[in-house]
Amino acid sequence: MKKIFSIFLLMAVMAVSSICYADISPSEVSLGGISPGTSKDYLVSVYGQPDDILYGKYGVETYVYGGTFSIRFGGTSPSAIWVETMGNNGIGTPSGITVGMRESELTIYGIPQTIDYEDGVKIIRFWAPGRKALDFSVINGIITHIKAVA
Asked: Which of 6, 32, 60, 146 is the least buried, fewest Cβ under 10 Å from its Cβ?
């Protein structure tokens, strides 16, 4: 009887944990059709030349469009390491989540893997396979910033 109870308990724990922390699809880790891993050439073919290019340490470059959409390229990597939108500019996730929407809209992704707080900003993270993630910054229940990272 103990064995049966132990097996049942283990199965219940596994079922609950798989429901609670399911990964989102890797295709969701994208903003405005641009994902971590996108090349500079492809980015420019879609959005044109950036309004600004910021140069950081170790060869990091950030392409900025309209002051509210930016794509960071890492040092020796020719591809994007993160994509972010900081304004209500129409750029969103493949499921249509954009800056300015209510936090409650994030339920389409299920239960977030992490929720952190930094300087009064709630940061909600959903992971995808391949160490990719979508981060949503929320203030007073409104999404203020979205970042797709790898």
From this structure: 6
Domains located in the chain, CATH noted: 25-149 (3.40.33.10)
Nearest to 101 by CA among 88, 119, 85, 116: 88
Q: Taking 70 as the threshold, does the pLDDT of residue 4 lie above it?
A: no
- d(CA 129, CA 132) in angstroms, rounded, equals 6
Residue length, the chain? 150
DSSP 34: B
pTM over 0.70: yes
Check if the beta carbon of residue 150 is closer than 8 Å to that of residue 82.
Answer: yes
Residues 6+ positions from 83 with CB-CB distance below 8 Å: 30, 31, 32, 34, 35, 36, 38, 70, 71, 72, 147, 148
- pLDDT tens digit sequence for 53-93: 999 988 899 999 999 999 999 877 779 999 999 999 999 99
Write down the pLDDT at residue 59.
Answer: 87
- Phi and psi angles of residue 136, each rounded to the nearest 5 degrees, phi first: -120, 125
Q: Which tens digit of pLDDT belongs to each residue from 29-39?
A: 999 999 999 99
